[in-house]
Design brief:
With about 200 residues, the protein is of the alpha+beta class. The protein has a single domain (about 5-200), classed as Deoxyribonuclease I, Chain A, CATH 3.60.10. It contains 3 helices and 12 strands; from the N terminus they run βββββαβαβαβββββ. The strands form 4 sheets. A 6-stranded mixed β-sheet has the order 3-4-5-6-10-7. It has a two-stranded antiparallel ribbon with strand order 1-2. Strand 5 (about 55-60), helix 1 and strand 6 (about 95-100) form a beta-alpha-beta unit. The radius of gyration is 16 Å and the shape is globular. It comes from Aegilops tauschii subsp. strangulata (Goatgrass). InterPro entries: AP_endonuc_1, AP_endonuclease_F1_CS, Endo/exonu/phosph_ase_sf, Endo/exonuclease/phosphatase. Its cofactor is Mn(2+); Mg(2+). This is DNA repair nuclease/redox regulator APEX1.
Length: about 200
């Protein structure tokens, strides 16, 4: 892969980062969303291609004790969504990555026990709905597989019992959703506590 792009946190070492590798040379590459408060942790890389933007994101986790919940839902989420929506005014957008939210009960094992856990609070799910669903972005996996139970993340020693979360997504602009052939999870790839996900677009 000749074209590869990386970003990492400069606010805290060994904390967060994103990367994109591509066979196709992008038209342009942007790091961050243009807001210094949010761009110190290396969480967003945007590649512009001929027919769409690809935005790779690692959304901040609300953390133990939900210490970053307010920052996440009141600051990061709307700022990131505004950034993506601005891109969409030029061409369709595909957002991919760890969005750190199980957006529906089907996306998490034992949801009644997790409502106070980072990634499944009412505030985070409502923020996801406001900033993505209501702005016309489509959860491609759920669109393709409305009733499938599929997880992309498992806590320590939980994978063997499939007690997981679906935190990783491909979201697509409504204008490009008809080009989605498949959106899938590869749960048998066990090199990380997250599993790879994939998106296939029609030509």
């Amino acid at each position: 892969y000749e074209y590869n792009y990386w970003s990492c946190s400069v606010a805290r070492l060994d904390y967060s980062g994103t990367g994109v590798i591509s066979r196709v040379k992008p038209i342009s590459v942007q790091y961050g969303i243009g807001i210094a408060e949010h761009d110190q942790e290396g969480r967003v890389i945007t590649l512009e291609f001929e027919n769409f933007y690809l935005v790779n994101a690692y959304v901040p986790n609300s953390g133990r004790g939900l210490r970053r919940l307010v920052y996440r839902v009141d600051n990061w989420d709307p700022s990131f969504a505004d950034f993506v929506e601005k891109l969409e005014s030029f061409k369709p957008v595909i957002v991919c990555g760890d969005l750190n939210c199980a957006r529906q009960s089907i996306d998490i094992h034992n949801p009644p026990a997790k409502t106070e856990d980072a990634g499944f609070t009412e505030e985070e799910r409502e923020s996801f709905q406001i900033n993505f669903d209501m702005r016309g972005f489509v959860d491609t996996f759920r669109k393709q597989h409305p009733k499938a139970v599929g997880y992309t993340f498992w806590g320590e020693n939980q994978r063997r019992n499939n007690k997981g979360w679906r935190l990783d997504y491909f979201l697509a602009s409504g204008s490009i959703i008809d080009r989605v052939h498949d959106s899938y999870i590869l749960p048998d790839v066990t090199s990380s506590d997250h599993s790879p996900i994939g998106l296939v677009l029609k030509l």
